[in-house]
Write a structure and sequence with these properties.
The complex is a heterotrimer of chains A (143), B (416) and C (467). Chain A contains one helix and eleven strands, in the order αβββββββββββ. Chain A is α+β, with helices and mostly antiparallel strands and 143 residues long. Chain B is built from 16 helices and three strands. Chain B has a three-stranded antiparallel sheet. In chain B, α1 runs parallel beside α3 and α12 crosses α13. The relative contact order of chain B is 0.13. Chain C has 16 helices and 19 strands. Chain C has a six-stranded mixed sheet. A five-stranded antiparallel sheet of chain C has the order 8-7-19-18-17, sandwiched between helices. The N and C termini of chain C lie far apart (90 Å). The chains are: A alpha+beta (143), B mainly alpha (416), C alpha+beta (467). Chains A and B meet through α1 of A and α1, α3, α13 and α16 of B.
Amino acid sequence: MYNLISVLFKYVFIIIIYLFIFSIIRLIYLDIKSISPVTLEGNAYLKLINRRDSIPYKIKEHYSIDGELTLGRRSDNDVYLNDPFISKKHLKIVEDEEEYYLEDLDSANGTFINTERVEDVVKLSNGDIIKLGSIEFLFVDRG
Amino acid sequence: MFNKSISTKTPRNLLLLFEILSLVLLLVNQWDNIDKTIYYIWIALILIIYISNFILNRITSGDNYIFLIVSMLMSIGIIMIYRIDSELGFKQLLWFIIGIIAFYFTYFMLKYIRGWKNWGKLYIVLSYILFLITFLLGTRKYGAINWITIGGHSFQPAEITKLLLIFILAFYYSNMDMFKDRKYSDYILMGLVYSFIGLLFLQRDLGTAVIFLGIYMVIQFIHEEKRMNILYNIGLFAVGGTLGYVLFDHVKVRVQTWINPWIYIDNKGYQITQSLFAIAEGGFFGTGIGLGNPEFIPLAYTDFIFSAICEEMGIFIGIGIIMLFMILVYRGFKIALNQNDKFFRILAIGVSTLFGIQSIIIIGGVIKVLPLTGITLPFVSYGGSSILSSFIALGILQISSEDMSYKEEEYCETRK
Amino acid sequence: MKHENRRIIIVLATLCICFVVLIGFMSYFQVFEAEAVKSNSYNKRLWINEEKILRGSIMDRNGTILAYSQENDGVMQRFYKYGNLYSHIIGYSHRAYGKSGLELSYNNYLLDLSESSTIEELKNIVAPSTIGNNLELTIDHGTQEKARTLLQGKKGAIVAMNPITGEIYAMVSLPDFNVNSLSEDWSVISENTNSSLLNRATQGLYPPGSAFKVITASAILDTPNIDTNYVCQGITKIDGYNFSDYNNIAHGELDLSQALIESCNTYFTEKSLEISVDNLRSTAELFMFNKNIPFDLPVNTSVFPKGNIGDTELAASGIGQGKVLATPLNMAMTASAISNNGEVMKPILVKSVVSNNGKVIKTNRREVLSTAVDSLDANTIKEMMVGVVQSGTGRNASIKNVKVAGKTGTAENASGKSHAWFIGFAPADDPRIVVSVILEEEGSTGGASAAPIARDLIIYGLNNINF
């Protein structure tokens, strides 16, 4: 009896291990395909904190802030994310004299900086965490 | 819209399935005489692997494939070791758990303690101390003096020295600005590495000596600005290799039994021929676990574990293992490419090279592509010190996959 | 930084190539080398089954048991009833010295290990058999014993077979060895110079001498417009090399039949030149020279020189000298073909493999390997061979009341002492047994020493074999 099961299992094991290898290679492949070469022109950028493969829509690892950046669900934003918790026009980041300011555009679910809800306009500093819906960005200012 | 079926869950679940099935197999095998402890431990292990992978996804912003790959390698290894010798399999399970702890320990040590890149002297001194201990307390095992026994546990100090070497090289090349002004610093490094290799040679630990050389050459090739030094190194290696062949009998024996083991089948070529018999017997699909005769292979649970796996699980699984190592090494180098901090970048290169070279040397050795040298197959072979050092190395790779160039401290504080 | 990235990729690529090489080598090893490696006698796995399975028995055509196994206190023991008699046919299965003969080539059948299909393999795993299959040989034990008695004290080989079915009745090669005392005798057997381990009947290569003239005669009959008459002067010069007849006796005017009966060398050397090398070679190849003969035991390939050979060489080949070499088995098959309307039969040693409960697992059936000559020519040569025994060099093989056909051969060789050959069959009109006899370095003619042995064996065979 054991012999029969053992023989059966040797094929099963081979199938499992190859599926395992295949699924990892597939993941890595998807990972590489979605990495666009990081061209960070400005001094400041947003970096995604969430694991990208845990997010069920298209999103990039980095977004550079070049003067102004708008974020929302609609496709006319600089950054548009198809997330039900993000408003059509959700927020805007503007640069002014080497300083960066975040403005919440009356979004339904709000924007949080380091757990504090943004009421109007807030000045961003390096290392701030911007949270909207389930997405978290790290604000980096190298200036 | 996004193909949801493909996420890290798929391989994680496959791994789980693999482990549960092997448990079922064990259950069927022991139906009349069930040893309960092994089930508790095995179930505990499955939980630990599953939870570890789960937690890792939460706490790290870095890579989440390497731990999965290693878990798979480890599982295959434990099944095979348990089948050869249930007591060793049991111990290996415990070592695996200790290894996971070491992995997390290393991960957090490197994450929260700063200044690793400044302690070069400490690494050098530690390495020499380990060598000294080996010579003073070492016992000869399988022809090499590279084991020390403390309180009934055998330990191979060179397993730790390997990692220290990577740290030394990372220290040197990430502090290039400092060393640029000092004359001959590059020759001092070369002398240092070759002193290690020489000491290993005296211990007759050829396999580890080759690994040291390999890691040194790779990191030098990538980071050395004086390209001439690489040529010197190659020249030195050629001269040293030839001298070693001429002077030392044990080197000659390795080469002879590699070229034609069949004429020494009774004595010197016994190990390699037994290994080839096992692989040939297995065929593509293997005999089935428990249905082959891996007990004929000497050291089937350590150096020759790959042959034992090939015999019972087939060379398809053997090829699978090679592919797993290939992905692991690929991920390691990918991590290095993405790492901006030079110190961690070199650590990642060093560790990936270590995994790559070590697995190539031992797999090549047992299938007679390369001369046989007695080293372990990382994560698969039995052995406490090997598992421990491999998991520490994996911890280094894990931390290197995270973005270390940001002001990490602020980020971590604000997150809490 | 850019340099570094490029170099990292170089190193990564190198390592990946190494991994791929490992995978490639493993696949290569499994496909091309594994079989040979597995069968190395140092592989202990070969002996595992031996301890669990009762090895099958081996019987002759009448059911006489020749070899069997018995279990004693859990240990399987192999018994060979006739120590020397079957040392080259059945061979041995010995832990220290490996396997030989049928014990080797039918090992999987004897142990009931079929690896033919996955289902069979599965069957082996689920219900591993404990009793192996038996072999039924075509050998006739009495004839085998008689053949060995006749050859006793000489060096050489005898093959006796059925010309119509290809069944081997007897196959003896001397010197032989005792399979029951391998451990005691091994150092002597394996090192002595008379190679007793060699099965001369299938693996010994000898110049066939005049026995080859049967093939040359076939080629002559096959060559259109050839003048089959010739005046023999006892000696002829070809390319400056002298070919002479036995004792330089001139035979005078001859046709093909008389030439074969008198075994006239000058006739066949001259005619070989007229046949041309290509035609002679292709006829020889139809008689299985330069061809692998499928058989239950390892067979060496008989040789007819290849390429464009000179006249001297061709003339020598025509009388079975020079570089022509033949196994006794091949010469027996040559005689069979003549007796069997020109059809060369596949030699059969194992009649069938029968399982422990009487089920026939494998049967070796009658099979034609090639048609060497057409039946008309075959019968012409047959009549000539009858003449050889009635009034020519093979008179010593003649039997009262039975028409025997045959051909003698006396082959010169490097040792200085000639080999004595006789090939023949009887009864000529209804052939039942073919015999090929070679006496190695006998120093006398085939007619004087080999023909009487063939005669005695034919008499015994015709009277005793259960055809």
